[in-house]
UniProtKB/TrEMBL annotation:
Membrane-spanning ranges: none
Domain Chalcone/stilbene synthase N-terminal, chain residue ranges per copy: 10-224
One GO BP annotation of this record: polyketide biosynthetic process
Residues forming the catalytic site: 160
InterPro entries reported for this sequence: Chalcone/stilbene_synt_C, Chalcone/stilbene_synt_N, Polyketide_synthase_type-III, Thiolase-like
Domain Chalcone/stilbene synthase C-terminal: 235-386
Source organism (scientific name): Panicum miliaceum
Keyword Iron-sulfur appears in the UniProt entry: no
Name of the protein: Bisdemethoxycurcumin synthase-like
Gene3D superfamilies attached to this UniProt entry: 3.40.47.10
Family: Belongs to the thiolase-like superfamily. Chalcone/stilbene synthases family.
Sample GO molecular function, one term: acyltransferase activity, transferring groups other than amino-acyl groups
UniProt entry keywords in alphabetical sequence: Acyltransferase, Transferase
Amino acid sequence: MSAEAILEQNQRAAVLAIGTANPANCVLQDEFPDWYFRVTRSEHDPKLKAKMKRICEKSGIRKRHFHHTEEMIGSHPELLDRALPSLSARLRITADALPELAAAAAEKAIAEWGRPATDITHLIFSTNSSGGVPGPDVRLAALLGLRPTMQRTALYLHGCSAGAAAFPVAKDLAENDDRARVLVVCAEAIVIGFGAPDEANPNGVVVNSLFGDGAGAVVIGAGPVAAVERPIFHMVSSSQATLPGTEPAVWVRLGESGLGYIVSAELPALVRGSIEKCLVDGVAPLGLAAGARGGWNSLFWAMHPGGRAILDSYEAALGLEPGKLAASRHVLGEYGNMLGATIIFVLDEVRRRRQGGDVGGDVDCEWGVMLALGPGLTVETMVLHAAGSRDEK
Ligand SMILES: CC(C)(COP(=O)(O)OP(=O)(O)OC[C@H]1O[C@@H](n2cnc3c(N)ncnc32)[C@H](O)[C@@H]1OP(=O)(O)O)[C@@H](O)C(=O)NCCC(=O)NCCSC(=O)CC(=O)O
C-alpha cells in the first residue's frame, strides 16, 4: 500500500507535542578532557588525555549537559574504581535524577499538547540509566499527576535506539484506540556508566567523549483530534531490521560497575555499507525509496546522531546533500549523544526548522524518515509525514 493510501486511512497516529530538557550542569567540549581527567583523578595519564582531546576536536560537539558534577563524583569513589561494585550507588543516583529530568521534558510536551495530564491514557518510559521495578516511571507518573489507572510500560537497555524503539509501541497503542493519548518519555543520566579512563579499554574514552544527559517527551494519538490538538508528524509506518552477525558492534550491559557500552570502531563503515539496503527494505513498499520521487534527497531526515562519523556515513551512503542532516548535527553539537532521548531532540529540531523555514529546502519535503541504531545491530525506522504539508494546508 502506498504511503498516501496509508495516510488516508483513519486512525493514523501522529506526534501531537514534543518537549525536551537537560540538567543544568554544562561542560564545553573543548574543556571536557581537562574536566574529565581532573574529576577522575587521572592526570597521570597524558597519553589517554591527548587521545580524548583528538576525539573531542573531531566530535562535532560543542557542549554537553550532565546530572553528575565534580562534587558528586568526588563523593563517590566507587564510581571511579572498576574493582569496586558501584551499580547500587549508580542506580540510587539515577532513581532520583531520572523522574525529575523526565518530568521537566514531559511537562513541556503536555503544556504544548493543551489537554490536562489526566487525559494521558498510556505512559511508555524508556531508559538505559535504570534497572529497577517499580522504576522511575512510577515517580514520573506521580510528579505529572497522571491517572493511577493509566497504563505504564517501561523499556530498558535499548541503547541509542531506546527512544526510537518506543515510537512503534506508542503508534500501535494509539491506532488501536482513537481515545488513547500515549506519553512517550525517554530520559538518560550517563552517570550509570561514568568511569575513569582505562588504558585497556580505549572505547571508554570514546563513549565518555560523546554521551550526555537529557530527556525527551512526546504525546502521540490517533483518530479525530480535539480542538486544541495540533498534529506535528503523522507516523506512517515503522520497520525494524537486525543486521546479521553484527552483535559485537554495539552492546549495552549492566554489570557490577554500572552500564558497559561498547561501540566498535567499525561502526561508521558498517553503517555506510548497510544502511541503504535497510532503508530500501523499510520504505520502498511505500514508494518512497531512492529513485522514486527524486530520491533520498526528496525526504526530510531525523537521524539519531550517534557520532559525527555516523552522520557522515549516512550522508555518504545515501548521497544526501549538505544540510539534509542539519537538525541531527545541531543536536549533536549542542547536547552530544543522549542515547535514546536524542531522537526526540532531533524531531523537535526538525519541526523548529520547518516552522522557521530555514532548513535548506527541507520545508518542501512532506515525507521524512526517523532513524536510529541500537545494539543488535538494530535499525529502527519510522516513515513520517509532516502535518500541514499537503491537503491539510
Ligand atoms: C569518535 C569520532 C568522533 C572520531 O572522529 P574521527 O573518526 O574522524 O577521527 P579519528 O579516526 O582520527 O579517530 C580519533 C581517535 O579515536 C579512535 N576511535 C574512533 N572510534 C573509536 C572507537 N569506536 N573505539 C575506540 N577508538 C576509537 C581512533 O582510533 C583515533 O585514535 P588515535 O587518535 O589514538 O589514532 C568518530 O569516529 C565518531 O563519531 N565515531 C562514531 C561513534 C559511534 O560509534 N557512535 C555510535 C554510538 S551508538 C549509536 O548512537 C547508534 C546510532 O548511531 O544510531
